[in-house]
Structure formats: structure tokens, C-alpha cells
Amino acid sequence: MDKTLQVSERFCSIQGESTRAGLPCAFIRLCGCNLRCAWCDSSYTWEEAGHSVTTGELLAWSAGWPGIMVEITGGEPLLQENVYPLMDQLLAAGHVVLLETNGSLPLERVPIGVGIIMDIKCPDSGMAGHNLSSNTDLLAERRRQGSRDEIKFVIASERDFAWAAAMVEDRRLTEICPVLFSPVRGAMEARRLATLILERQLRVRLQLQLHTLLWPDRSRGV
What we know:
Number of domains: 1
Number of strands: 9
Largest sheet: 9 strands, mixed
CATH superfamily: Aldolase class I
Number of helices: 7
Radius of gyration: 17 Å
Helix content: 25-40%
CATH topology: TIM Barrel
CATH architecture: Alpha-Beta Barrel
């Protein structure tokens, strides 16, 4: 049975983040977010109402790109209950499915076949108090079941870097899944972040937003 979701936008582009960066990807960006990060680059997902779209319509749309992975993002997609049947239906249709989430909501109901890209919010985001620490334990369990999940830190300052590095080391996050450090544009220079990673000898991946390099004049649909 069709379920309805509030969708901010949907588009096919190059995956700009995660370990799948560079691959074609069909994006379904859902409306709504429970956090207000200081550096948010998609505030329109909670400032605008979006459009009501059924799961059937989204499946038909994604079928227009056969063999291309589908990412569900936001905002925070897990705020909408009907995201769960959407993930199930996309998997059943044979898609590689990714879910980008801010890490503040429980992940137990995300199907094991979905690749989770989970943020851990750093202090400069203003939202570090909303990180749900039990989610990292869940990612460890999902790995044992064969999942391909990832953790992402968005770094706005050297204070953020020190905090994130300590988190990676103390919780041994790189033993759970790939860990990515992404600089905030205009706040943390990518070269400086690379230097800090090398000096700390962290086994994390420096992540630049490839889509912002390819289309610097566009803030949506990429």
C-alpha cells in the first residue's frame, strides 16, 4: 500500500560525500529536521513545506535510473514514519540504498541492507548534546551482520577536530566502520584539516563535498 512522505526535492547527481563519492546517485531529500546546526546548508528542508509524494511515485521515479544507488537524506529522514516502508520497497526493487541521518534518533529499525551514513555532531554545530551514543554500538552490531555503514564528523574548527579525534580514539570508531572528517566551507580550510589528520595519525578519510566543487553556483539539486 502506498504511503505518503513530505519531500523537499529529488534529483539525480554525483554522490558528493561518503566512501561512494563520485558515483551516480538518485537523491530523495525529505522535509523536516529536529536539529538546527550552526553551519546547516539545507535549512530549506525545514523552512519550506515541500511536496506530498507517495512511496509508489518515488519507486517509479527511482526506476528511471536503473542500477543507480538511491540515497534518502534530509533534513532528518527518520522523522517521517513512512521512510521505513520506502527503504524496504527500494531494497525489494533491487536498489543499493543509503540513508543519511544526523545521529540523534534510534537506528534500530533501519533495514540491515541500507547503508547508514551517520553524523556525530561536533561542538561548533551547537548540537553535540543531541548525539545518541547507543547508535555507535548499533553500528558495531550491524557490521557483524554485514552492513556497510559510515560515520561522519563535520569539522568547523580546530576545537571540533580535537573533540572528534578524541571521540574516534576513545570509542575506537574506525574498528566499527569507515570514519569521515568533512570541513565546513568558509570555517575550516581543507588543507589545514588534512594536516591535523596527518599530525594526529588518524585512520580517517578526509572528505570534501565533491558536488560543491563541481557545481559551486548551485545549492540545490546537486
